[in-house]
Amino acid sequence: MTQIRNQFKLIHMDKQLTNNTFATLSKVGVKHLVSKKGKLDYISWADAWTLLKTHCPDATRTIYEHEATGLNYFSDGKTCYVKVGITIEGEEIIDCLPVMDFRNKSVSVDNLTSMEVNTAIQRSTAKAIAMFGLGISLYSGEDIPSEPAPKPILVLGSQNYVKVLKYVESNKELGVESLLAQLRTKYVIDGGVEVALTVACK
Known about the structure:
By secondary structure, this protein is α+β, with helices and mostly antiparallel strands. It has seven helices and six strands; from the N terminus they run H-H-E-E-H-E-E-E-E-H-H-H-H.
């Protein structure tokens, strides 16, 4: 009877551990491992993998290959993506990540390099690990497009206005409508400023 109880206790503990994997991994500190790329914070795939294996020794990684081509990436005919799965205690999470260049823009399938595919696989590895909780806070807000900064208002007599006025006077041959259209991509122009620039353009 005691043996049955102990076996049940072990099974129950294993079940608890599985249910709490996310809660456990999301509390693991990664701040000391954070690096920056542009405005984004990240931890390297190697650091993420080391931490994961420290806390979940049974964790495995699967790099998916295209069934028809055998290649380790997939394509929609224009761009490419990779698929990486992380499995912990029998649960797999698969991350799909576009193959991107250094500006985080999708790479055309015609210009694809093996190095870009490899980099995407390692980044996808880190993201799949994060789905289990480890370092997930680094991805908060990643999918929210940044709002463009509001355009400054062009004020008569301001330093910006003086620069714009010189530009308008030097480029009168472009015509007032063309000049105003250009300026509106950078500034908010009210009626008074528009009239002053139109006069300066004559």
